[in-house]
């Protein structure tokens, strides 16, 4: 699931973080891929961040249903600068697809709710 935004990268990250918050998700982790590539490999890479987003009530329900679901948490959201350098791309994996990978059927309703919320995040980002 994804959306292109006519915003510079830094502003896009701010908007994504705010839209996640509006749907009850906090950002637990931030991985600056560009900085990591430079530090570890001394290579240049486009501005790119992986945000580990978590909705605590949904995470609690998921972990209560299946402890191993922690392997799939938090929900990763990526934001990166597009090829033009003037816009950004946001992508989120569909939790219903991700949770369908051999885990408990009890996770279905949790994954579905998370997917609905994350789709609303993308819809909010698609409007200027």
Automatic annotation (TrEMBL):
Domain called DUF302: residue spans: 31-91
InterPro entries, alphabetized: DUF302, TT1751-like_sf, UCP021774
Signal peptide: none
SUPFAM superfamilies per the UniProt record, alphabetical: TT1751-like
Domain of life per record: Bacteria
Gene3D superfamilies attached to this UniProt entry: TT1751-like domain
Name of one Pfam family that matches: DUF302
Database matches in PANTHER family: SLR5037 PROTEIN
Protein name: DUF302 domain-containing protein
């Amino acid at each position: 699931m994804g959306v292109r935004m006519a915003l510079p990268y830094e502003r896009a990250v701010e908007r994504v973080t705010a839209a996640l918050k509006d749907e009850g998700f906090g950002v637990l982790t931030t991985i600056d891929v560009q900085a990591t590539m430079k530090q570890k490999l001394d290579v240049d890479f486009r501005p790119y961040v992986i945000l580990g987003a978590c909705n605590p009530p949904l995470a609690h329900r998921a972990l209560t249903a299946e402890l191993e679901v922690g392997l799939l948490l938090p929900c990763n959201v990526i934001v990166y600068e597009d090829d033009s350098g003037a816009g950004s791309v946001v992508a989120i994996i569909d939790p219903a697809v991700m949770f369908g990978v051999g885990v408990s059927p009890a996770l279905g309703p949790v994954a579905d709710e998370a997917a609905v919320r994350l789709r609303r995040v993308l819809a909010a980002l698609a409007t200027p």
